[in-house]
Amino acid sequence: MKFLIDAHLPPSLRQVIxxxxxxxxxxxxxPDQNAAKDGVLNRVSMAEQRVVITKDTDFxxxxxxxxxxxxxxxxxxxxxxxxxxxxxxxxxLQDIVVALESCTLVELDQKKIAVIA
Length: 117
Description:
Blueprint: E1 2-5, H1 13-19, E2 23-26, H2 38-48, E3 50-54, H3 57-66, E4 71-75, H4 82-100, E5 105-108, E6 113-115
Parallel strand pairs: 1-2, 1-3, 3-4, 4-5
Antiparallel strand pairs: 5-6
């Protein structure tokens, strides 16, 4: 599975995702880097079938109303340390991937994932 990590999340998540056998890019890898607009992330997601991982609820509404981005992981946590964020993804990534095989939107908090759509 291919992922696109939004600017609100650490670039080091690329390594966590890659270690699990998946591909990931961060907004820092895009031409406008962390200044990339939501529309650009949506276009990349749709064109490359990438799951957007974000804390930005604008993507939640865009996905529900317009089907963009292609698939979405909405992270519903407050501020967390980099270590805690990586550990949360290490713990839940396999369940996220399984859920995204049959759905398009999951929410992730510190303890669980929830399938939304």
